[in-house]
Amino acid sequence: MSYSNNSNEKISSHPLPEDQEMVAKLWQDVFHDTDEFVNLFFSRVYKPENTLVIKHNDRIIAALQMVPYDIKVNNKIIPSAYVCGVCTHPSERGKGLMNKLMHEAMNEMQKKGFGITTLIPAEPWLFDFYKKFGYTQPINHSVEEYVCHQRLVKVMNTDPYTFVECTNEHFPYFDSKQRERKCTVLHNAYDFETIIRDLKHDGGSIYVALENNIPTGMAFTKRVSDKSALIKEILYDNKQVKTALYYHAFKMYDVQHIKIRIPVHSGKKRFPSEEKIYPYGLACILNKYIRNIPVPGIYMSLMLD
Predict the structure, then answer these.
(1) CA 160 to chain centroid
(2) Which of 55, 244, 268, 274 has a CB 3.0–4.6 Å from the CB of 10, allowing a cystine?
(3) What is the rounded distance in angstroms from the CA atom of residue 238 to the CA atom of residue 177?
(4) If we measure between CA atoms, which residue out of 67, 109, 68, 59 comes closest to residue 88?
(5) Where are the beta strands (DSSP E) in the chain?
(6) What is the DSSP letter of 15?
(7) Cα 290–295–298 angle (5° rounding)?
(8) 85: Cα separation from own chain's centroid
(9) Is the dihedral of CA 187, 191, 193, 198 positive or negative?
(10) Which sign, positive or negative, has the C-alpha torsion 56, 58, 60, 62?
(11) What is the reported pLDDT for 189?
(12) Is the per-residue pLDDT at 7 higher than 70?
């Protein structure tokens, strides 16, 4: 913890348990999230020991969160911290407060032994802002797009699969599939329940494809507009299941256009221009002994962003 010359201003500190309501109000004032999301985050994710704040006259004017996650890199599990909720009260911006808070966060994450830290910039210009703190490794995702005329949606064949609503009981399948990836942020069972709750609050749906009552695929979906839907994450045993999963989304939402977020392809494609790659987040390697992050890098999804 460090202090400014002004005795009324604590440059960085962990909030007290009774400060939670103040931190939550600052979050909502800056990000304008729904009450449901803010209540979910501050009841299930927020912890004072993972939070840094700047106080002035006992009023919190800036804050950030450092949420622990494991990252699988090849066959190793590395502790990481996901920096989120980085915010300054509008009346206090332009004073360098976030620079001070980020420097303190980087020091603290190293002291706690995190090997990697990740974040998702809220605005495009912030990608350059975070580079000066060491966030230079891009985290990208690819997007597949499918278009179907409305009259064809009704005849899409999803046999032999049946679809059920995803529950906590389906975590073992989710966990087995996420660990098949070479380099990815991992979600534990508690995270999984939080993700389910968040997507439901957002009007989304998570469904599981069953074959002979055995899970073979899973999709995290939400409507984007009257004509389009998004699959935020898709996991499956084979291409036939994958096709059935997005066919089911077409039918469920009665839309003509679907986008699916997927990891960037790791091999050589015959037509590279076919793969649409989008910047999503950034990573900073805190432990100098971590080497050889696989190409195309860390994959990150379902981060409550």
Answers:
(1) 32
(2) 55
(3) 12
(4) 59
(5) 2-3, 9-13, 51-56, 59-73, 76-88, 116-119, 137-147, 162-165, 183-186, 205-211, 214-223, 228-236, 257-262, 276-285
(6) P
(7) 65
(8) 12
(9) negative
(10) positive
(11) 98
(12) no
Coil, helix or strand for 234? strand
Mean pLDDT within 40-45: 97
Kindly give, in sequence order, each residue whose CB lies less than 8 Å from that of residue 91, ignoring residues fewer than 6 positions away: 61
Question: Which two tokens mark 226?
Answer: 């009257």
Tokens representing residue 77 in the block = 């599990």
pLDDT band at 9 (very low <50, low <70, confident <90, very high): low
Provide the pLDDT for residue 5: 42
CA-to-CA separations, 153 to 66, 274, 277, in angstroms, rounded = 43, 24, 27
Contact 139, 103 (CB under 8 A): no
Query: What is the rounded radius of gyration, in angstroms, for the C-alpha atoms of the chain?
Result: 21
* C-alpha dihedral, 167 to 118 to 299 to 268, nearest 10°: 180
Longest CA–CA separation in the chain, Å: 70
Better-predicted residue by pLDDT, 177 or 275: 177
**Burial classification of residue 245, based on how many CB atoms lie within 10 Å of its CB (0-12 exposed, 13-18 middle, 19 or more buried):** buried
**Residue 295: HSE in the Cβ half-sphere, 13 Å Cα cutoff:** 3
Q: Which ranges of the chain does DSSP label H, i.e. alpha helix? A: 20-31, 35-44, 97-111, 126-131, 150-153, 171-178, 189-201, 239-253
Distance from the Cα of residue 142 to its chain's centroid: 15
Q: What is the pLDDT of residue 2?
A: 42
- Other beta carbons within 10 angstroms of residue 22's beta carbon come to 18
Distance CA 274, CA 295 (A): 18
pLDDT at 237 over 50: yes
Asked if pLDDT for residue 236 goes beyond 60, the answer is yes
**CB-CB contact of 30 with 90 (8 Å):** yes
Mean pLDDT of the chain: 92
Count of alpha carbons within 13 angstroms of residue 245, beta-carbon side: 30
Spatial distance between the Cα atoms of 39 and 45, rounded to a whole number of angstroms: 10
